Amino acid sequence: MNYRMLELIAPPETAKEARTFVEDEDILGLWSDNLEDGCSILRVLVDANRTEALTDALTEKFSHIEGFRIMLFEVQATLPQPNEREEEETDEEQEESEEKSIGRISREELYSDVASGSELNVVFIGLVLLSTLVAGVGLVRDDVAVIIGAMVIAPLLGPNVSMALSVTLGDLDLGWKSLKTNAIGLLASVILAFVMGLVMQVDLESQQLINKTNVSLGDITIALAAGSAGVLAFTRGVPAAIVGVMVAVALLPPLVNVGLLLGSGYMNLAIGSVILTTTNLICINLAGILTFLVQGIQPRSWWEAKKAKKATRIAIGIWVALLAILAVIIWYWNLSVNPL
Known about the structure:
The chain is of the alpha+beta class and 340 residues long. It folds into 2 domains: 3-100, Alpha-Beta Plaits; 107-337, no CATH class. The chain is 67% helix and 9% strand. A hairpin with a 5-residue loop joins β2 (29-34) and β3. The longest helix is centred in the C-terminal third of the chain and has 36 residues, at 302-337. The chain is elongated.
């Protein structure tokens, strides 16, 4: 089980009222104490997939109080193990408990994780360049193990997932930030791969390199699954590097392939990799948005939810239209254009 420690800081009267309120909720432990500055602290141990409902309820009830603050901490382990349910629990209580469980981490924790992965900094650029170097060598050498090593780094997972989340929440600032980070990351990868194509001897006998120039409708399925898996990694608290490999399968190798082939002068082959990369980008973001929606990710307030719903409809419409156009292009490419 995944647990979270929720800490509420507020004036003593508010903390006492909050304690009474929380006692009626489905929690695993509850402690309170007074602080030296005249405030009180309330600590609540709760299952990770129940934190959103509890924080929303507390925020709605007490956020207007001066000095009110909620902090959320991940609990690595707790001994003895909490007794989450009584053996004599009735069917009605079980149904109510299941309704409260959202099966994922809270919106706030998810936002924090995703937003941090979309930051444009030296570390991000460094990871993009390193993964591009490793992937480029693997493609030229036709070495699957080396390509997988590049995908483990998975630097492009964060900005793509944050783009999908920004649409789902109607967060324009996060959306522009994610788009900028993603665009610079993609551009940096292509430029470095292009330089590698100029200085390295690109052998067309490399099966891995040639495979990334062949695009089919089956690649759409792979990219959709990759986007959904990437989102699930964040919402379930799974280490991003684990599922980041799947996103990288659909994104990084064909992207690096574009630069390698352009740098080596194989323009016709590069077109196939461009189509594959574009298709994967669209599918990953479309699947990400849909997965967030299925998991019930939405803003807390109704007016923000209304704005987010409109943004989501527009984004889904655009992604679906682009995907349909690319599907036609892929069909035509395989029918008469692809020289292989």
